[in-house]
Amino acid sequence: MPYVLLTLAILSEVCATSCLKLTEGFSRFWPSVGVAIGYVLSFALLGRALKHIPVSVAYAVWSGAGTAAVAGIGVAAFGESLGRLQWFGIALIIVGVVVLNLKGGH
């Protein structure tokens, strides 16, 4: 169950961060509401997950997976482009998250 909570926290954070682009500097109401709800929900779920997962592992997974997902959403939904070096960096983030989970001591 803790990893389900962590996954939901990541999804909430990714949704909130993606909505940031849509707020146009917080000048649009509904996307701004989405950002606020998404981040509050994400931190609440992350806090619950931290009862059972070490903070070093949970935060690395939360931030790393969120970063990689938002980069992908930027490309797919917002037409942003990433170069080879940026894709390589995202791959390193993913590898780092996997290694933390293999050697996280949990």
Characterize the overall form.
Answer: flat
DSSP strand tally? 0
Mean pLDDT over all positions:
93
* Residue runs with pLDDT of under 50 for 5 or more positions: none
Distance between the termini: 14 Å
Radius of gyration: 15 Å
Profile the largest sheet: none
Structural category is mainly alpha
Helix percentage: over 70%
Count of individual helical segments:
4
Membrane topology: Multi-pass membrane protein
Keywords: Cell membrane, Membrane, Transmembrane, Transmembrane helix, Transport
Pfam family, one: Multi_Drug_Res
Family: Belongs to the drug/metabolite transporter (DMT) superfamily. Small multidrug resistance (SMR) (TC 2.A.7.1) family.
How is this structure best described in words?
It is a multi-pass membrane protein. Belongs to the drug/metabolite transporter (DMT) superfamily. Small multidrug resistance (SMR) (TC 2.A.7.1) family. With 106 residues, this protein is mostly helical. It has four helices and no strands. The protein has helices at residues 2-22, 29-49, 55-78, 84-103. Helix 1 (2-22) runs antiparallel to helix 2, helix 1 (2-22) runs parallel beside helix 3 (55-78) and helix 3 packs antiparallel against helix 4. The two termini are 14 Å apart. The mean pLDDT is 93.
